[in-house]
Design a protein that fits this description.
Length: 108
């Protein structure tokens, strides 16, 4: 048996057939969804409720030491702080509050 310089010697044989699991006759029951995601409109309002106060507070806090900065630089620094804070902290908490209020409303 000659060895192919590109492939190892043990791989010269044809590959064996791969056995696939048999499909069951009845599909597995789907897990119930914990809660439906809020509509795009509700998410937009929640995002605005997170962003507006953060931007307002950020602008007021930055104003004393960024007065001489170019407006684009001020916007860059502000968004570097506000966007991660909103995405990773504030919006998830507001979505959680919305879900709890929705669940409470559904219990009644």
């Amino acid at each position: 048996m000659t060895s192919n310089p590109i492939t190892p010697a043990g791989l010269d044989a044809a590959p064996a057939a791969i056995a696939l699991p048999a499909a069951s006759a009845a599909p597995a029951p789907a897990a119930p969804a914990a809660s439906a995601a809020p509509s795009v409109h509700v998410r937009a309002v929640i995002t605005w409720l997170a962003i507006f106060p953060l931007v307002s507070i950020g602008m007021l806090a930055m104003a004393p030491f960024t007065e001489s900065w170019h407006p684009v630089l001020r916007a860059l620094v502000l968004t570097l702080i506000v966007v991660p804070l909103a995405v990773y902290v504030v919006v998830p908490r507001l979505l959680g509050v919305h879900a709890r209020l929705g669940a409470r409303r559904g219990v009644r």
